[in-house]
Amino acid sequence: MASMMFTDCSSSTTSRLILSNRRSGSILLRQCVGQLRLRTTPSGRGFSLSIRSSSSPSPATLVDGKAVAKTIRDEITVEVSRMNESIGVVPGLAVILVGDRKDSATYVRNKKKACESVGIKSIEVRLPEDSSEEDVLKSVSGFNDDPSVHGILVQLPLPSHMDEQNILNAVSIEKDVDGFHPLNIGRLAMRGREPLFVPCTPKGCIELLHRYNFEIKGKRAVVIGRSNIVGMPAALLLQREDATVTIIHSRTKNPEEITRQADIIISAVGQPNMVRGSWIKPGAIIIDVGINPVDDPNAPRGYRLVGDVCYEEACTVASAITPVPGGVGPMTIAMLLSNTLTSAKRIHNFQ
Length: 351
Ligand SMILES: NC(=O)C1=CN([C@@H]2O[C@H](COP(=O)(O)OP(=O)(O)OC[C@H]3O[C@@H](n4cnc5c(N)ncnc54)[C@H](OP(=O)(O)O)[C@@H]3O)[C@@H](O)[C@H]2O)C=CC1
Ligand SMILES: Nc1nc(=O)c2c([nH]1)NC[C@@H]1CN(c3ccc(C(=O)N[C@@H](CCC(=O)O)C(=O)O)cc3)C=[N+]21
What we know:
Blueprint: H1 2-6, E1 15-21, E2 25-31, E3 35-40, E4 47-52, E5 60-62, H2 65-87, E6 92-98, H3 102-118, E7 121-127, H4 133-145, E8 151-154, H5 164-170, H6 182-189, H7 200-211, E9 220-224, H8 231-240, E10 244-248, H9 255-259, E11 264-267, E12 285-288, E13 292-295, E14 303-306, H10 311-314, E15 320-321, H11 328-347
Parallel strand pairs: 5-15, 6-7, 6-8, 9-10, 9-11, 11-12, 12-15
Antiparallel strand pairs: 1-2, 3-4, 4-5, 13-14
Helix pairs in contact: 2-11, 3-11, 7-8, 7-11
The structure holds NADPH dihydro-nicotinamide-adenine-dinucleotide phosphate (NDP) and 5,10-Methenyltetrahydrofolate.
NADPH dihydro-nicotinamide-adenine-dinucleotide phosphate binds next to helix 11.
């Protein structure tokens, strides 16, 4: 219901253009309003798109998660083969999928493809919707004991008759590549402690900020959303990077007043186009985690994906913004591969 309120963003039109990249194929870029400028990304391997808007004196950089994720996958590929050649070990990721949610099946398929692309071995277990919690725990326990598995991911959400906490607690912390085990989250929250793994989506957000050389230290950051998998760990990570962090949630009064003070906004709400241009301080950096399907009879699938942030409005005010799709989503998967590689290296004491 609430999501319907935000489905429409602005009356400004969005045009699209396809740019060809020799290394990563075609990238779909959205043009906002005004003049476009293309630069190579800090890695030198991708593109960054700048938009000089008629209503904004400063250009907004398009923070290209898809291109950065490709760079990271290339780096991981090199490391995976170096490890295999040196000690004959191939990192392995086990994914447990319970039930037949279409979106979860798609995510799992994408993770599998990404593993293949870098040389990580992926093992998938599918359990029926009516499996018992015991069945899932058995599967987790089997992977905990399997030396060819270095990472275990239990795809969320689980069917409602299962206790998610029980299941996440059962994953060995040494193989918790999602970073959802309470010990890993607890360490993330404590000064002077180091988690073995950091949750992939928030880690991907910070990695994007780093790769674009955006300073975090001393900045005012606002995280919208406080879920265990995105909002809360994103706030903890920003704090560890010496930002001053405020969290907005569904009971926050006047969220727009708070976001307007932010130098960095990370939005993980699940409400299409909730964050309007007027919520944003000129020059702010926006990381839009939201992935929200909205009906679109012209789209091949009958819907398209939009973020939590009204992209067309935001890119006339912000200095940088992630698109949806092509922003944080691909980074989440890249961080999962990175965590799996780290895990295999740690288990086999390989530097
Ligand atoms: N790009 C990626 O890789 C990923 C994207 N996502 C996407 O990110 C979004 C969030 O996911 P997730 O964290 O799992 O979602 P949850 O539903 O678990 O959490 C949503 C959070 O947003 C808050 N919220 C809801 N409505 C409002 C509102 N009107 N104003 C302020 N805060 C609000 C909730 O507050 P309260 O706590 O008070 O209920 C809650 O903390 C979704 O669109 C999801 O698809 C998720 C994971 C990965
Ligand atoms: N244990 C667990 N770990 C997760 O990390 C986890 C999970 N459960 N459950 C669901 C959410 C969601 N999530 C996404 C990952 C990639 C994209 C992604 O790559 N999105 C593409 C678009 C994909 C499309 O077009 O459908 C993009 O944004 O460009 C999106 C969402 C991980 N999650």
